[in-house]
Each structure stands twice: as C-alpha cells, then as structure tokens.
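Weekly sync, protein design subgroup
Attendees: M.S., D.O., the rotation student, P.L. (late)

Item 1: inverse folding check
M.S. brought a backbone from last month's batch and wanted to see whether the design step gives back something sensible before we order anything. D.O. pointed out we never logged the input encoding, so this time it goes straight into the notes. Structure tokens as presented (252 positions):
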C-alpha cells in the first residue's frame, strides 16, 4: 500500500513517498492504486490537482480471512471510459472511482476555485455585516447612555434651580419681615404703639427676637391678630419690633 490514509497505516510501504513521486511525475497516467490484504479495507483520494499533478484514488481490499467461514469477500473491477467501478461482495464495499480527463479535471478545478472564491466572498461579506452590526449596536448603546446622562443632568439642574428658588423665596420673605420689623420700630419711635398687628410665622421657633410670655394675650391671639390701642393696653405686654409669642391653637 502506498497511501497512509488508504488503509492500515502499519502496512504502508517504507518508500511510499518516492513511489508517489513517480506516480505523480506524469499527470493523468495513474488514476487508482489497488492493494489487498487489509484487515478492514479502506479508501482515500490523494488530490494534487492544484499543483498540476493530478488526482490518485487509493483502494484497500478487505482481507478474506477477516470474514467468517462461508461468507464471500471479493470484488469485480469494471473499467469504463471515465470511471472505475468495484462491485463488492461480502465484506468488500462497492466503490465508484471517477476518472476525469485532463480537460475535465481543469474544468472541475476551475469550478472548485470559483466555489471557494464565492464562499470566501460570502464569508468576508458576513464578517463585514457582523462588524457593521456590532458597530451600530455600540453606537446605539453609546447614544442611549449619553441620552440617559443628559436626562440625569437635566434632573439635577432642575432640582438645583428648585432649591435656589426656595432659598430666594425664603430670603425675600426674611427681607420683607425685616422691613416690617424696622417699620414697626420706627413707628414706635414716632409715638405709634408696637404690637397692634401680629402675623403667623409658622410652627418653628424663630432663630432671633424676644419671646413674650403672656397667657392672656396668647389666648386672645387665637381669635384675631389685630388689636386697638385700648385692647392691647389691657394685656400690659411689653413688646418690640422683633418680639414673638407662642400660641397654642384651639382643639376641635
């Protein structure tokens, strides 16, 4: 046997490389090598068409002693114009070997080259499509991430503006109260009575000012926030422009 892949590797001839060089020295002369006495038989193709050295088929016939007694183990080899046919019996498999002419081999080679080029082009196109798809996916993910960051920045800006407006409103209210306290102070300096008009400033204790302790006056403030001079004098309350008093609301 002259082909390692044609049957049992242990039975290949020791100088098979030199033998194959001789076989391939003239393209198209040898198309098939048949050997016998193989334990399980075998078949392979030594294709050197691309190198201009033709194609050789290797057939290893199964050994008859491997078959049980009384079982056939042989084949009939038939020759045709463009093929060889082994009609196997028993343990020998039937094989059809195509034997194209040089012209047919060149046509077949050109066809195979065209098919390979088409497959390569298709593979390259598929790779390009995958690359552009991945690029588009990355660009979309980046766009979504940037949009989310922009939305988050807008939310932060809106919250900061809201806090700034609240601070501005609080500062404006404090300025208004300060102006009212100053007006009350200057009114007292001009002979007017301080304490005739009061306003609610919330449930939290003011951070500045003088607290007034007068339960009767605190009770009266439950009903109204403005008094006449005569009403206010009856409570005997000493107040200034920044005085405040705790009033407990009525329970309903």
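Designed sequence read out in the meeting:
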């Amino acid at each position: 046997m002259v082909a390692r892949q044609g049957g049992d590797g242990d039975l290949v001839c020791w100088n098979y490389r030199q033998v194959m060089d001789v076989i391939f020295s003239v393209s198209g002369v040898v198309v098939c090598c048949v050997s016998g006495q193989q334990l399980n038989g075998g078949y392979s193709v030594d294709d050197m068409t691309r190198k201009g050295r033709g194609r050789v088929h290797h057939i290893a016939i199964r050994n008859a002693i491997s078959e049980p007694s009384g079982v056939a183990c042989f084949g009939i080899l038939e020759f045709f114009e463009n093929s060889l046919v082994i009609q196997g019996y028993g343990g020998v498999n039937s094989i059809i070997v195509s034997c194209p002419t040089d012209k047919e081999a060149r046509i077949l080679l050109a066809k195979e080259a065209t098919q390979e080029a088409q497959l390569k082009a298709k593979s390259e196109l598929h790779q390009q499509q995958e690359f552009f798809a991945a690029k588009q996916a990355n660009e979309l993910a980046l766009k979504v991430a940037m949009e989310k960051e922009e939305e988050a920045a807008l939310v932060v800006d809106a919250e900061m503006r809201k806090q700034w407006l609240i601070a501005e409103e609080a500062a404006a209210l404090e300025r208004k109260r300060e102006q009212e306290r100053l007006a009350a102070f200057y009114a007292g300096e001009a002979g007017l009575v301080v304490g005739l008009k009061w306003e609610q400033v919330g449930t939290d204790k003011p951070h500045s000012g003088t607290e007034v302790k007068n339960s009767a006056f605190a009770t009266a403030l439950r009903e109204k926030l403005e008094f006449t001079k005569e009403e206010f004098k009856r409570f005997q309350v000493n107040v200034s422009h920044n005085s405040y008093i705790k009033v407990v609301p009525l329970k309903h």
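Discussion: The longest strand covers residues 55-62. DSSP finds four helices and eight strands in the chain.
Action: P.L. to compare against the previous round before Friday.
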